[in-house]
Specification:
This protein is of the alpha/beta class. The chain has one domain: Ribokinase (UDP-N-acetylmuramoyl-L-alanine:D-glutamate ligase, 3-Layer(aba) Sandwich), CATH 3.40.1190.20. It contains eleven helices and 15 strands. A hairpin with a 4-residue loop joins β13 and β14.
Length: 348
Amino acid sequence: MKTKIVTFGEILLRISKPGYQRLFQGHRMFGNYGGSEANAAISLAHLGDNVEYVTRLPYGEMGEAALMHLREFGLNVSHVVRGGDRLGTYYFEEAVAMRNSRVVYDRKNSSFYSLKRGMVKWNQVLADAAVFHCSGITCAISRDAMESTMDAIKLAVADGLTIACDINYRKNLWGYGLEPHDVLFQMMQYSDIIFGDQNEWEIASGVPHIPFEALDENYVIDWEAYLSYFRKMHRLFPKCKKMVMAVRNQIASSHHTLSGLLYDAVEDQLYTTRIYDIQPIVDPMGVGDAFIAAYIHAHQKWGDENQYCLDFSLSASAIKNTIPGDQNLVSEEEIISNMTSSGGRIQR
C-alpha cells in the first residue's frame, strides 16, 4: 500500500527583529525557515508520515543549510532541483497591541522563482505516492511554478492519487498576469480535499463568507448557514469529497478565537467542533499549514472518522499558536491530549 505524501513549494528564510521591533528599527535580526508547503511537510513528518518535499534550491552554503533543515525532520529530498541564484526570503514584523503584523516578501529571482516547467520529474516523484499536496502560494509565485503544479496535479489524478489543496491566497504574490480566482478555481476542480480559511474560500469561489465573530468559546456557529454554503461549494467543485474550513476571529494581536468545519460531500454532512480561545498568541505563522497537515495525517490514518479528524486538525492548529517559528513541532500524542485538555499542567 502506498503511503508517501508529496508536497511542492518554496522553502524560505524568515527574518525577524527581536522584541516586537519594527523592521526598520534596531541592528539585530534572527532567522529561521518557513514557507507554507515546507511547514506542512515538516508537520507531517513530525507526525510520523512518509513525506517527500520537492523544491528548487541554489548551490552553495544557503542551499545546503536549507537541505540540512529539511533532512533534520526526516523528509525525503531526493528530487529537490538545484540551481538558480539565491534562497527566497521573507521579513516578518510581529503584531503587538493594536499594531498588525507585517510580511515583506523578497522572492523575486530566487531559485524557486526561476524554476522552469519540466525541471521536476513528476513521473518519478509520484510513482510511489498516495497523496499530492498543492498550494495556491506555489501557483502565485510564477507562471512556471503554476504550470509545474498543474502538471503534477493532472498526472497525480491520472494515477489515482488523493489531491489535497490548500487555497493559500496571498494577494502580494500574484504578479504574472493571471487572475488568482481563475487559477485557484482550476486547482480546486481537481482536488479531493480542499482547505482554506473563510476569506480564502470567498476569494476562490466568489461566494461571500459567513462572518465568524466569536469572542470566546461559547459562541454558537450558524450550522444551517454553513451547510448551505458548503452545498454551494460542492456544486462548484464536484470532485471534492472533503471540504475543510478554518475560521478565526482576531480579537487583538495576542488574542484569537479559532474553530473549524468539515463538510463531507459524499454524506452531505457538516461537522463542527469546539472553539479555542487562545491568549496569548505566541506566533500565528503557519497555523493554517498546521491545520491542513494534521488533516491529511488524520485522513490517511482514520479515514472517514470525520468528527475525530476535524477535532484532531483543529487541536494541532491551535497548538501552533503557542510555538515560535513557522513549523508545528508537536506529536500526535500531544495533539490528542490537547483535544480534551485545557492545558497548563506540568508533564512529568
